[in-house]
Write a structure and sequence with these properties.
The complex is a heterodimer of chains A (705) and B (411). Chain A is α+β, with helices and mostly antiparallel strands and 705 residues long. The longest helix of chain A has 26 residues, at 2-27. Chain B has a three-stranded antiparallel sheet. Classes of the chains: A alpha+beta (705), B mainly alpha (411). At the A-B interface, helix 11, helix 14, helix 15, helix 16 and strand 23 of A face helix 6 of B.
């Protein structure tokens, strides 16, 4: 009896714990302020004094069993400490210091500071942290990517490749020097650089950056991995001089170091196990122009960024004509059509919704009264950046799809041209390789296979699919239907897939559509459970495309080959959670990828990239879809942009904060809306960076009787 | 209280109806999920058989009720209209389709609607069109232009439900246009709305019929058993039902649908959806059946049957059920309306039938996002309201016709 009572009590306590947990979901995160005080100074010092990075080769040896734990420990003793402290005298002579100050400035000298811009978010940010769970959302650019200062940033208009890699203009750095031989970059920080709370930015903040990103407290494995594998050392010479080393002297090794954003040492004194809760709603000091005041966070409704009046970098070249708005007011509007209506009313100052054809051509056509009266301006800007790899990723590990003829047939049975012409209304262009938009690194002559029913049928016939079943879908001698699941995590592109489905049926191919939500779709692809997935990998403006992640056999299978390195291991298992979504495993390609990763010569890398693209073209497991060569923006007349509108590397009109508000025009326009006064129409196309037009090979498929 | 007069002597052909009903239901399933032609045949046979067998031995009370139902004009005509539409939708392929009804080519006659897919070369097309399935609209235009003896007869709405038709060179909503035979216009990707509505209606109606039959089958059985056996069995099952009915059905649909693999065909996935919906909806019916059975169980005719030695199954289904059925019948149209609403709502939320299956909910969803093309939302809205109004009218009429108070003095 007694026992059962105890167990009952146990259950009761379980339920109360559950209830507490549930109520905690609501708003328990505010408790962080009252939590115990942590001071991690000693822990950080200890880490600096002891941490050694495991060299990747050594780790690989240990993992593969080539060396034992003991030998591994012995080898580790010879590895130098990751954090080093030296003096100014230790900096080698003869370094070639540069500062990028001779590069042309961008933005407009006419820009006026001031005003509030009203904009919208679809979801309220789930946290103000920059890393950790939920941090990688649509709000992060406002506090990190587009606003926080790096040591130096790639010049967005001068995009060529120089002797040290891409051209950089300084932000936090005063000057820097690349030592290719020792795979090290030396940097002097600008002594005037300040955090938004007034503290100076010093080398300590960069040392701490490594502690921060390598620590498990932040619950961000990607960062843990990146900051441990991609850097071998940081050395402090004095408060404003440091050097960092990287494992490989790649042509773009300067970017690995210069793009780093410091982490405020003094703010994260309390970094510990409860990081996620403790820092959930605390705005961390920034080196950028905009801060968030506590009063401006209206949870679930709106959030406002405020420009620091005495921002340390406000007069610096490359930054002086940017970050012009005094305040950026972001309201949460969950419904897209409602967001558009708010813009049309003038409640929002600008919108990117015109990037969607239905908005640009039907809801806000050029003939719209507000545009014809000159109240709303429209602009189209051609940028030149690496393109997200939209396409069909065919999983070769699946039955039938392991047949190259079937894959080529799928290429010819997929009518992207119709999607581009009729669904995107010619706004987009066809993607041709797996890596478009990398300038000199993109294969110059390769063209994707056109839609062509006869060619598709021919290829399918080679694979044994010669007869059509009663529903018009091809069947082979065993009665197997030529039918595959086409899955996607993009609900917005659902209609586009139904077009592909209908068109593929003409060539006797059936796509069974599966539309999942974003996370589920991506998870399915990463677990390699898909037949064919329509997806895209997003890319940052890097110098050259990556191949190892997506095409190396090591990312397709565990132990892909037998001893000889070319015979497929009959017992190999699919490797999940990698980006080789096509299960591509080609020994020749692997060799090229390894050479490509080792190479420190840009020209050699280009040749290797072209060769790899050609192999991938033959392999035909990626059907390149489309590329959006431009972006559009619609904005009220008082929002002003520079003459050339934006910079070459911009991905949206707001990314580089070049626009400003003209208060006089705002007043004038608002009065004109009442009185009916009109202004000149402004529909601009800025195609100074547009790719030269490539004439498409005429395809027979478009002809009708 | 004439309603409660034992009717086992003037036997309502429960058994036979049950047999035909089962046959018809199997037919319905095969219609939806196996081979629709085969299924259609079975349904028709079952229908004819039951129509011929029922009237002869109908309970006079039931006859009275039916007569009364017929007198409630609004409900009766709604019933006729809905019946007509449902039968009509079985032949949707002959009304809205991108396949021709009849093709006359070089002296031969073809009926492509229900035949295998025909390739272009069958009708003398050349080049890339020879090996692709025929586009009959283009073929019609071609034959007309040639002026020979060849001709094509297209259905009234010459568009399939999943076909993207361009308008001014792009895929965008096209306003209703009788000349282009887009009678209700097209949706955001140029699919004909009339065609999608017809097919969507068919799926919704037959889905809801299947849903209703299954829910009632389970609900009536469990409810009657509870009422008849009573005692601990009743208590136990009641608690089970209470717990079960607290599981939020919409989340279950979302969760289960996110884990079932897509290699299943669309019809399998539709049946799974049906299964889940039934699994979480049968509980409501049991309460009514339980009460009604309790009441009937206490009557003399049940005792008489027990004394004669009839088993529980016989008593429940042959003696009690005919007397409690009127309670149930009145709910039927409303259950159907609920099923149509549920499937529409699920489609609207994006968790219903897999794309590109035509459905009213999907059109409604598109329409609310495309208010600049008002014909999309109007079509779906009017269609949905129309169907639900019909069903509700029928429901009201049935309820009134079957109202036992009509026969009591305290009216």
């Amino acid at each position: 009896m007694n026992q059962s009572l105890t167990s009952l009590l146990k259950h009761l306590s379980f339920f109360s714990a559950l209830a507490a947990l549930l109520s905690g979901c609501g708003g328990g995160s505010d408790d962080a302020d009252t939590a115990e005080v942590i001071d991690n100074t000693a822990e950080v010092e200890e880490y600096y004094a002891t941490f050694k990075r495991v060299p990747l080769e050594l780790k690989a040896k240990l993992d593969s069993g080539a060396i034992g734990q003991e030998e591994f420990n012995r080898s580790m003793e010879d590895v130098a400490l990751f954090f080093q402290f030296k003096t100014i005298a230790d900096i080698p002579e003869g370094l070639n210091w540069t500062n990028g100050m001779d590069l042309p400035d961008f933005g407009s000298p006419n820009a006026k500071k001031g005003g509030t811009i009203y904009s919208a978010l679809q979801d309220f940010p789930r946290t103000l942290r920059r890393v950790g769970p939920d941090a990688n959302g649509g709000f992060r650019p406002y506090i990190l990517d587009d606003v926080a200062m790096r040591m130096a940033k790639r010049h967005p208009n001068v995009t060529g490749i120089g002797p040290d890699g891409h051209y950089y203009y300084p932000e936090l750095a005063k000057e820097w020097a690349v030592d290719k031989e020792n795979k090290t970059v030396y940097v002097r920080l600008d002594p005037s650089a300040r955090w938004s709370d007034g503290e100076p930015v010093t080398v300590d903040d960069y040392m701490f950056m490594f502690f921060f990103f390598q620590s498990s407290y932040i619950q961000a494995p990607w960062y843990n991995n990146w900051y441990t594998e991609m850097y071998t050392n940081i050395t402090k010479y004095d408060d404003h001089t440091l050097s960092m080393s990287v494992p490989e002297a790649k042509p773009d090794m300067n970017s690995r170091v210069l793009e780093l954003v410091p982490v405020a040492r003094h703010f994260f004194k309390e970094l510990g196990d409860d990081y996620v809760q403790r820092y959930q709603w605390r705005f961390q000091p920034t080196t950028g122009a905009y801060v968030i005041n506590e009063d401006d966070i209206k949870k679930g409704r709106s959030i406002t960024l405020t420009r620091q009046k005495d921002w340390w970098a406000k007069d610096k070249k490359f930054l002086r004509y940017r970050y012009n708005y005094d305040r950026i007011h972001l309201t949460v509007i969950r419904d897209i059509p409602k967001m558009f209506e708010s813009f049309k009313r003038g409640d929002l100052d600008a919108t990117g919704l015109v990037n969607l054809p239905e908005y640009n051509y039907e809801k806000l056509p050029d003939s719209d009264p507000d545009i014809q009266k000159g109240y709303i301006h429209k602009a189209t800007f051609y940028n030149d950046i690496p393109r997200p790899s939209y396409g069909l990723w065919i999983n070769q590990a699946k039955p039938l799809l392991d047949n190259q003829n079937v894959r080529v047939g799928i290429h010819h049975a997929t009518n992207w041209q119709r999607v581009i012409d009729e669904y995107f209304r010619g706004d987009y262009i066809r993607m041709n390789t797996t890596a478009d938009g990398y300038g000199e690194f993109t294969h110059p002559t390769l063209r994707s296979r056109p839609y062509d029913v006869d060619k598709a049928l021919e290829e399918f016939a080679k694979a044994g699919f010669t007869e059509r079943g009663p529903d018009g879908i091809l069947v082979n001698a065993d009665g197997q239907r030529l039918s595959f699941t086409l899955s996607t995590g993009y609900r917005t592109f659902q209609d586009l897939l139904t077009i592909l489905k209908e068109e593929a049926a003409n060539a006797g191919l059936e796509f069974r559509l599966e539309v999942l939500d974003g996370t589920a779709g991506w998870k399915m692809a990463q677990e390699k459970k898909h037949d064919i997935t329509f997806s895209a990998l997003n890319v940052s403006p890097e110098m050259y495309p990556r191949y190892w992640e997506t095409y190396h056999a090591d990312n397709a299978y565990d132990k892909p080959w037998l001893e000889d390195g070319v015979t497929p291991n009959p017992e190999r298992k699919i490797k999940t959670q990698t980006n080789n979504l096509q299960s591509v495993a080609i020994p020749e390609l692997d060799a090229l990828i390894s050479a490509y990763r080792r190479s420190d010569d840009a020209d050699e890398m280009k040749q290797l990239a072209f060769r790899m693209e050609e192999i991938l073209y033959e392999d035909a497991s990626f059907v390149p879809a489309f590329v959006r060569p431009n972006y559009r923006a619609a904005f009220w007349r008082w929002i002003q942009y520079p003459e050339d509108f934006n910079v070459k590397l911009s991905r949206s009109s707001g990314e580089y904060f070049l626009a400003w508000i003209d208060q006089d025009l705002k007043k004038e326009t608002q009065e004109a809306r009442k009185s009916g006064k009109t202004f000149p129409v402004s529909i601009e196309v800025h195609d100074q960076y547009a790719p030269k037009t490539i004439t498409e090979e005429p395809s027979l498929a478009g002809i009708t009787p | 209280m004439i309603t409660n007069k034992p009717t086992s002597t003037i036997s309502f052909p429960t058994k036979r109806v049950a047999v035909y009903g089962t046959v018809a239901f199997l037919g319905l399933l095969s219609f939806l999920f196996v081979n629709w032609r085969f299924g259609l045949g079975i349904i028709l046979i079952a229908l004819i058989l039951s129509i011929f067998s029922i009237p002869i031995r109908l309970n006079p009370l039931t006859v009275k009720k039916i007569v009364r139902f017929k007198h409630i004009r609004r409900g009766y005509y709604s019933f006729l209209v809905l019946l007509f539409l449902s039968v009509f939708s079985l032949f949707a392929e002959l009304i809205a389709n991108n396949r021709a009804l009849v093709v006359r080519y070089e002296g031969d006659t073809y009926f492509p609607t229900y035949s295998d897919v025909k390739l272009g070369k069958t009708f003398g097309l050349e080049g890339p069109l020879a090996n692709a399935p025929v586009n009959y609209r283009d073929l019609q235009a071609k034959f007309k232009a040639e002026g020979g003896d060849n001709w094509v007869l297209m259905p009234v709405v010459p568009y399939g439900p999943n076909e993207n038709n361009q308008f001014e060179g792009v895929l965008k909503p096209r306003p209703p246009n009788a000349e282009a035979k887009h009678y209700l216009g097209t949706d955001g990707t140029g699919r004909d709305i009339t065609s999608r509505l017809i097919y969507g209606f068919r799926i919704a109606v037959f889905f809801s019929l299947a849903f209703m039959s299954l829910v009632y089958l389970i609900g009536i059985t469990v409810g009657s058993l509870m009422g008849y056996f009573g005692g601990w069995f009743d208590l136990f099952v009641q608690r089970l039902i209470e717990i079960w009915s607290l599981v939020p059905f919409i989340y279950m649909v979302i969760i289960i649908f996110s884990v079932i693999p897509t290699s299943f065909s669309i019809s399998t996935r539709v049946s799974i959806l049906l299964g889940i919906m039934v699994l979480f909806s049968w509980t409501g019916m049991t309460y009514y059946m339980r009460t009604a059975t309790y009441k009937e169980k206490a009557r003399d005719y049940t005792a008489a049957a027990q004394i004669i030695g009839a088993g529980p199954a016989r008593i429940i289904f042959n003696h009690i059920l005919p007397n409690t059925i009127s309670t149930i019948v009145t709910f039927m149209p409303f259950t159907m309306a609920a099923a149509i609403t549920a499937i529409t709502a699920l489609d609207f939320l994006g968790f219903g039938l897999p794309p590109p299956t035509p459905s009213i909910g999907e059109i409604l969803k598109q329409g609310t996002a495309r208010l600049d093309a008002p014909w999309i939302v109007t079509s779906a809205f009017v269609a949905l309201v129309f169907i639900l109004t019909l069903v509700t009218f029928i429901g009201e009429a049935v309820r009134e016709a079957f109202d036992p108070k009509k026969f009591t003095t305290y009216r």
